[in-house]
Backbone:
RNA sequence: GCUGCUGUAGCUCAGAGGUAGAGCACUCCCUUGGUAAGGGAGAGGUCGAGAGUUCAAUUCUCUCCAGCAGCACCA
């Protein structure tokens, strides 16, 4: 038998017979490793212990201590065990696929009856039985024909379709958990008992299309989470609870920021509190845009379909546009308009007024553009996905040679804005030319190189997504992470070679001839609605003072202090703070509780002492202790804290 | 849009084929109280909309609307 050499993580190499399994290697090292082993990494690939190794390789044996591998296997085995449990309870359920996802796993089933929440408990119990049985996991490689025949015989049509969709005719890997069998790439654990029985939980049932295709049948998907131990599971469940507490829909109601109602699904009624945050943010963005050399414009809401036809949006997005038909008595035909779903074509109209020279470029045109899109009903979600929204939109008209500098300038602005708004870091995704695209390879080469060079002036760490650019140009997407670790995609930056062409935008070059400008679409917040949703959740409603809708409440302890309360509020207001008086006939405990729940950053309590000394007792949101401060000293301090970050001195 | 679930007072929720319930919030009265709910009284509902079954529907059935979870979609 041929010999191979396996190199261990410590650098030692040892000879073995070709075809040795990782399990046998582990067994050769120690008995305890053999028991604890879960998988291996062989030449960088995650390797099932039962798979033979045929050639020289590096090898590392994994135990439950190796987080990445352990979690992947636990979750993947959980998916199989869940499918086995489901078929054990309901033998006629058809199985499809069950992958690992972030925090857990799911499996899609085809079953006539819907699964109920009570079913989940029953399935969980069955899964625990299977885990406790410590059934061995076994794997074999089968010829395709044999596998297809097997699944046809077992009446598992989805599996047959899966196999038929796998390209080539390599043999297929089959897995058994005990008697239960599934088609699976692997790897898996050695036996079901290696899955911790107290560290997983089935979370929910929901519909999901077979193969992710909305024209195919709807399956039932059961989601589960799984971890290495009960503690990690508990932490995860706590995190979910924390996220639920921060839900912007809940906080929006509690803090009286906004509401939504049936008559205007997907659109926001902003209340005074919410609108204060909104306009404060908008004022901030307006200042930043000016600082970065943008001009601001405003364009119409209702625009004739002709423009959308010219831009190409009518053809592609008609179903998602709000159509406005005007039927005037004397008109020959109905005028068909659409509510603006985006601002770009309108900005080109502004650009096209008057002849532009290369001296006018780059032209950075910004608009807080109110847009309406008829989003599918199932997509709506609080402020995060709405039908009426306002983008912090801008288009930069420039020459090809200016792309790099404009990209770099934009990155500078974006990182500065995110930092001001409380997000320390962000990730960049760079999407390059797709298969089907407009524009010459030469232009794409140039644009992609410019974008990449610009990114590299900021960071070398970015995610490359080849082929995922828009058909009209390469793009950058920006993701940031919030206070509890969730990621949000916000900003975007897209080069566009097509729209200037379609809408005939030109400039006169140095050579006196007409040229096409490049259009750079960009947004930093995305939309105010969504961004505010994210801000609410990121801060859990506890906005920094400059953004807080209600900044200071001055509360009287006894009614004798009412006059002083009013005086203090007037002084705070004069200093530019959003201050309110609370002189209701209520106890201070009651007022403190109410304004704390309302997330007011500062409560200033005044009683007889304070009136006499011209002080206030300050209670900061989230802190229990109070501090007596001279009113005249406090006001400038609060005013400073309430100054937006871009206006802070020094 | 699709699958499943939900819709009762401003909010959170209970309820049952036959005058609709609680807590908080709201209004009024008493209370002037020192840092997360002082006491009392009162007002408040076309039970999401429409149709059907029934002597009788908020309750059962159907259709629609909206919301929630997920999927699909997201210029």
Residues:
């Amino acid at each position: 038998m041929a010999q191979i050499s396996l190199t261990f993580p410590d650098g030692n190499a040892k000879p073995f017979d070709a075809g040795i399994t990782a399990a046998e290697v582990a067994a050769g090292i120690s008995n305890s490793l053999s028991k604890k082993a879960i998988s291996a990494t062989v030449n960088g690939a995650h390797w099932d212990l039962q798979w033979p190794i045929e050639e020289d390789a590096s090898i590392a044996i994994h135990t439950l201590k190796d987080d990445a591998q352990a979690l992947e296997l636990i979750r993947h085995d959980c998916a199989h065990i869940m499918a086995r449990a489901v078929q054990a309870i309901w033998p006629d359920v058809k199985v499809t696929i069950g992958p690992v996802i972030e925090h857990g796993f799911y499996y899609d089933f085809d079953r006539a009856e819907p699964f109920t929440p009570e079913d989940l408990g029953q399935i969980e119990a069955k899964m625990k039985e299977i885990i406790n049985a410590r059934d061995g996991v076994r794997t074999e490689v089968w010829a395709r024909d044999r596998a297809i025949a097997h699944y046809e015989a077992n009446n598992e049509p989805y599996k047959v379709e899966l196999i038929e969709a796998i390209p080539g005719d390599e043999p297929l890997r089959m897995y058994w958990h005990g008697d239960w069998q599934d088609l699976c790439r692997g790897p898996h654990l050695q036996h079901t008992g290696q899955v911790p029985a107290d560290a997983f939980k089935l979370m929910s049932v929901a519909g999901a299309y077979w193969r992710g295709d909305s024209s195919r049948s709807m399956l039932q998907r059961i989601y589960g989470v799984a971890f290495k131990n009960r503690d990690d599971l508990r932490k995860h469940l706590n995190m979910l609870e924390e996220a639920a507490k921060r839900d912007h829909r809940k906080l929006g109601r509690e803090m009286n920021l906004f509401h939504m109602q049936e008559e205007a699904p997907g659109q926001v009624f902003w209340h005074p509190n919410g609108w204060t945050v909104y306009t404060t943010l908008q004022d901030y963005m307006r200042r930043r845009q000016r600082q970065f050399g943008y001009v601001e414009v405003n364009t119409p809401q209702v625009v004739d379909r002709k423009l959308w036809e010219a831009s190409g949006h009518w053809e592609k997005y008609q179903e998602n546009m709000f159509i406005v038909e005007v039927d005037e008595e004397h008109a020959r035909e109905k005028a068909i308009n659409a509510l603006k779903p985006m601002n770009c074509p309108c900005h080109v109209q502004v650009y096209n007024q008057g002849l532009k020279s290369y001296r006018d470029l780059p032209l950075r045109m910004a608009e807080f553009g109110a847009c309406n899109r008829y989003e599918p009903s199932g997509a709506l979600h609080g402020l995060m996905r709405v039908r009426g929204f306002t983008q912090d939109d801008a288009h930069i008209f420039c020459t090809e040679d200016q792309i790099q500098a404009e990209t770099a300038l934009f990155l500078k602005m974006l990182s500065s804005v995110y930092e001001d708004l409380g997000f320390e870091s962000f990730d960049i995704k760079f999407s390059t030319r797709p298969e089907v695209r407009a524009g010459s390879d030469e232009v794409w080469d140039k644009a992609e190189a410019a974008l990449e060079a610009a990114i590299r002036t900021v960071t070398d760490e970015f995610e490359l997504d080849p082929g995922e650019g828009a058909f009209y140009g390469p793009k950058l997407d920006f993701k940031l992470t919030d206070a509890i670790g969730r990621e949000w995609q916000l900003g975007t930056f897209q080069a566009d070679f097509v729209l200037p062409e379609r809408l005939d935008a030109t400039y006169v070059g140095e050579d006196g001839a007409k040229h096409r400008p490049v259009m750079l679409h960009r947004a930093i917040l995305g939309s105010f609605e969504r961004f505010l949703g994210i801000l609410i959740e990121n801060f859990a409603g506890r906005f920094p003072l400059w953004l807080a809708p209600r900044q200071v409440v001055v509360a009287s302890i006894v009614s004798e202090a009412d006059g002083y309360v009013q005086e203090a509020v007037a002084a705070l207001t004069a200093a530019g703070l959003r201050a309110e008086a609370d002189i209701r006939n209520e106890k201070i405990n009651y007022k403190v509780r109410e304004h704390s729940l309302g997330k007011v950053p500062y409560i200033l309590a005044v009683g007889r002492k304070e009136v006499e000394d011209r002080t206030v007792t300050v209670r900061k949101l989230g802190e229990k202790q109070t501090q007596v401060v001279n009113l005249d000293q406090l006001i400038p301090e609060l005013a400073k804290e309430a100054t937006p970050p871009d206006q802070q001195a020094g």
